[in-house]
Amino acid sequence: MSETVRYEIVEDWIAKVTIDRPEKRNAVNVEVAQGMADAVRRSEADDAVRIVVLCSSGGEVFCAGADLKAVSEGRGLELYVDGFGFGGFVEAKRRKPWIAAIGGQALAGGMEIALACDMIVAGEEAKFGLPESKRGLLAGAGGVSRLAKVIPRNVATEIIVTGDPITAARAYEIGLLNRVVPTGQHIEGALALARAIAVNAPLAVQGGLALAKQAIDLSDEDGMRAGDAAIASLRGTEDWQEGPLAFVEKRAPVWKGR
Hints:
This protein is of the alpha/beta class. The chain folds into two domains: 5-198, 2-enoyl-CoA Hydratase, Chain A, domain 1; 202-248. It has helices spanning 30-45, 68-72, 109-116, 143-150, 153-162, 168-173, 186-198, 202-215, 220-234, 238-248, and strands at 5-11, 13-19, 49-56, 61-63, 80-81, 85-86, 98-102, 105-107, 119-123, 127-129, 166-167, 179-181.
């Protein structure tokens, strides 16, 4: 792993990935991009990991986006990883859910990384924004497209074209965040959400995640077909039989992930 990205198993079934460049506002450089791609590969390959929490060091800034020093030196392409996109993450193909734990600011590319996660938990002090329009730029690494899918389009448009940040309270109000927790508790808040997911059947969680990602682009009819296909892939697995059996036997299920 990169020295600027830490990967650790913190509890049963849960991994934590930490972007660790607080002196540079956790900005994405080549080491962070490669480290994030490695973290995705590692979590996807480990059957003992069912869910990942993404956070950063410090507390004032979750991630400031691209390292402008690298960009100014003509090394902007180093911040992209083939098959994984900006930051080694925003285009990564993942089966397992990731939760962004946000403390402080998540702006520009930092917000794009948060949006690439499947859920977001933030501290009350957190702020979110896509300020690119103030610099003649565009949040093209998923910021504009994902934001317009996650929240009402007219609200997303305002955030995109003004470039002004919003508070965690406002972000929760418009549906951008899953949970808002007291300042300094964003990692524990994300872990609490991760625990609630990790106890469930991993194949069902992964199937539900994949279907939810497709749903926004599907008609009702196509969504039903996709749901039927997802159920068919689960039927006959050991976990498919274990859930009902555990209920009948009045015990906690023991998931095998197969």
